[in-house]
Design brief:
Helix content: 25-40%
Low-confidence stretches: none
Shape: globular
Order of helices and strands: EEEHEEHEHHHEHEHEEHH
Distance between the termini: 33 Å
Radius of gyration: 18 Å
Number of helices: 9
Number of strands: 10
Structural class: alpha/beta
C-alpha cells in the first residue's frame, strides 16, 4: 500500500496542493483529471521530490518520507522505488535510445552495465523500437521519443509509475500509439498514477479516477460512476467543457 498524507505545496503565497490524502493499492491504476493549474502535475512531481513538498508524508511500504525532515538518502530511496514519465519526454539529447534507458538503471538501480544493456534491449523490443536502440532523440519521432520515456520507466520495475500528461506534447498522429503502450503497461498491473486530459483513455485504463480542483481532491470513484453520475458541480461543469 502507498499512502500520501497531508501533502502540501506552496509557490510563494499560492497553495498548489492543499493537504492531499490518498491511498493507492498495489496494482491499482489511478487517473487524475481536472482543470489546468489545479495541482495535478505538481502532485506527481512532489511524490518523488522533483518539487519538494512543504508538508506531508509519503509512505511506500517500509519507507516513510516526511517532507519537513526528508534527508537526501530518503529522497534517493524514494526515487529508486518510483518511475516518472514526463510530458516533454525528458530524454538526454546526447545519448541514444538505449543509453537513455540504461542511464536510469545504472545510476538509480546501480545495475552493472552489461545487465543494464540487456534489460534496455529487452525493453526496446517490448516497446517496438528494437531496431532504434542506437538512434539519438533527434532522429526519433515524438511518439518514438515518448515510447523511450515510457520504456525507461518500465525498465526500472518501480513500485509506483508516475505518468504526467503523456500525450500533451505529441502531434495527434502519435497519440494512439503512446496510449496503446500505456494500456499494455497497465495490463501487467503496474501501480500507476496518471495525469491526463484524454477522457476516453481515463475511462478505459483507470480503476479509479480523481478529480482535482483548487489543489484538492474534490471527487473520486470508479470511472463509470465519476463520468456518468458526477456529484460535485465543479466536476459536472468540467466534464461539460471537455465532452
Amino acid at each position: 500500500m502507498i499512502r500520501i498524507e497531508g501533502l502540501t505545496k506552496r509557490f510563494g503565497a499560492r497553495t498548489v496542493l492543499d493537504g492531499i490524502d490518498l491511498e493507492i493499492a498495489p496494482g491499482e491504476r489511478i487517473v487524475v483529471i481536472g482543470p489546468s493549474g489545479t495541482g495535478k502535475s505538481t502532485l506527481l512531481r512532489c511524490l518523488n521530490f522533483l518539487d519538494r513538498p512543504d508538508a506531508g508524508r509519503i509512505v511506500l511500504g517500509d519507507l516513510v518520507v516526511d517532507a519537513a525532515r526528508a534527508t537526501r538518502r530518503q529522497i534517493l530511496a524514494l526515487r529508486r522505488r518510483t518511475a516518472f514519465v514526463f510530458q516533454n519526454y525528458a530524454l538526454f539529447a546526447n545519448r541514444t535510445a538505449r543509453q537513455n534507458i540504461t542511464e536510469a538503471l545504472t545510476v538509480v538501480k546501480r545495475l552493472p552495465q552489461a545487465e543494464a544493456d540487456a534489460r534496455a534491449d529487452a525493453t526496446l523490443a517490448e516497446i517496438g523500437l528494437a531496431d532504434r536502440g542506437d538512434a539519438y532523440p533527434a532522429a526519433l519521432s515524438g511518439g518514438q521519443q515518448q515510447r523511450v520515456g515510457i520504456g525507461r520507466a518500465m525498465a526500472l520495475d518501480a513500485e509506483l509509475m508516475l505518468v504526467d500528461e503523456p500525450t500533451s506534447a505529441l502531434d495527434p498522429e502519435w497519440v494512439g500509439e503512446v496510449l496503446e503502450l500505456l494500456g499494455r503497461v497497465a495490463a501487467h498491473r503496474q501501480t500507476m498514477l496518471i495525469v491526463t486530459h484524454e477522457m476516453q483513455f481515463a475511462r478505459e485504463i483507470a480503476d479509479r479516477v480523481l478529480f482535482m480542483d483548487g489543489g484538492r481532491i474534490v471527487e473520486q470513484g470508479p470511472p463509470e460512476a465519476l463520468f456518468e453520475t458526477p456529484r460535485d458541480p465543479r466536476l459536472q461543469a468540467f466534464l461539460r467543457r471537455v465532452a
